[in-house]
Amino acid sequence: MASSFSIAHVTPYPWEDQDDEVGAHVRELCAELSRRGHRVLLLAPSRSQELVRSSRRALRAARAARSAGRSLAGGESLLEGSDSGTPRVLAVGEVLDVPSSARRRPSALPIDVARTVEEALTTVELDFVHVHEPFAPSTSSAALRHSRALNIGSFHAHSERLLSTLLARRFVESLFGRLDARTASTAATAAVMARHFSGDYRLVPDGPGAADAYEEIYRELAARRHLTGGDPAIERRLRSRPLIDVDLHMHTDHSYDCATPVEVLLATARAQGLGAIAVTDHNEISGALAARALAEQNGARSRGAASDGASNGHVKVIVGEEVKTAGQGEVIGLFISEKIPHGLTLAETIAEIKRQGGIVYVPHPFDRMHSVPDYEHLLPVIDQVDVLEVFNPRVAINAFNDEAERFAAKYRIAAGAGSDSHVPQGLGSARIRMRDFDGPAEFMQSLRSAEIVTRPSSLLYVQALKFLQTRARPASSQRASRSRRVRRVRRAGEGRGRR
């Protein structure tokens, strides 16, 4: 039996416009997909105050029910009955028509539509959000901004869009970057779109046959999502393990931009209550290997001192490396054993991580202030990405973390988090609470049910400390400071051993 999906189609044109070609096409397409057993929600602006009011009442009721934990009566209620030939219509806002002498009526100007669209898309669990003519500002562009599902963008008109192609080009280009597939109704439309916004535009003519083409696109995109659930045998084994806090991204003075000695890092991790850390120096593995060796030595000493043989406060170290690729951002390899050279392509770097039996962890994706792999780089290797970092406290703009969270959710990629600490004071500011693990397979299974825990931290403060420790003082002063910090840690460790 063919797969059935939950799909939201979004059009910028008023629901009542019977003479609008795109609106008519979207209505017929939604009805056909509904007849084929898909659950279809159609979001559109409307001229009817009563339709808008009734849609918002239904949305409020669904949100209230979902908050109360009644999932079927919650978000699912908006899709109930929409798989038998009649899609559910949500009027997301009233509109004022923009006067125009053009033959094609322009998109209506929505009033207070963005919030309603956001509420709808965060209440209903969807496989796809299919936006038509998602030029800003419109209902479709608002849906693309707030979608947490796989996104398809369909472009119908072949006329030039001066606002989007000239005045708001960079914003629109960034927004279109969230599309996982693009279609064009005609070859002329595809040519216009490709000229202004590069991408692969699949030709899907409006009218009969469109439903077949879109179902094929839906199936192709759905096949790229990661499988959930994992290994039941490992899951059963992990149930009896204690919960530990894990920081998956940090640096030592083996990184060029960090002055934290390995000894200080481990002592701070222990003081922060971390059970495991991933040491991920830039283009280097020596710091991680040194940290693991010292952690194992400390653990052995702790077990020897304990009367019951337990390792009190032992911090487990995952050996990692944050590798800079050839113009495609950075990627972290976890559970690796050999240094990976920088300057390879993203695909080559990932292949080397996999060769070593490691885990591919993508740090701070979509943060335009870091060297990051963006949508265009991630999509070709999406099946090889194991973990996506969805929270990094050093990301200055929260929207970048939110974008990473949406991307991980729609492709069902395991979510990770790390402090990206370059100074001890930042360590543990983002951590994962998960079942204790041994090796990459148990780590991945434990991560599936993990919880991300954050604590308030000042980005300005930790960045100032990083500058003071790595650049504001001469090299001789930095070496003297390092020696003092290491001596303090060692004296503290000796004191614990005597007790």
Walkthrough of the structure:
The chain has 499 residues and is α/β, with parallel strands linked by helices. It has two domains: 6-222, Rossmann fold; 232-493, Alpha-Beta Barrel (TIM Barrel), CATH 3.20.20. Helices cover 40% and strands 18% of the residues. The chain has a nine-stranded mixed sheet, sandwiched between helices. An eight-stranded mixed sheet has the order 4-3-2-1-5-6-7-8, sandwiched between helices. Strand 2, helix 2 (49-67) and strand 3 form a beta-alpha-beta unit. Helix 2 packs parallel to helix 3 (113-123), helix 3 (113-123) packs across helix 4 and helix 10 (262-271) crosses helix 11.
How would you concisely characterize the structure shown here?
The protein has 499 residues and is α/β, with parallel strands linked by helices.
Radius of gyration: 26 Å
Quaternary structure type: single chain
**CATH superfamily placement of the largest domain:** Metal-dependent hydrolases
Give the biggest beta sheet. Answer: 9 strands, mixed
Structural class: alpha/beta
Number of helical stretches of at least 4 residues: 17
- Per CATH, the architecture of the largest domain is Alpha-Beta Barrel
User: Which of globular, elongated, flat, extended, rod-shaped describes the shape?
Assistant: elongated
Distance between the termini: 67 Å
Average pLDDT for all residues: 84
Number of domains: 2
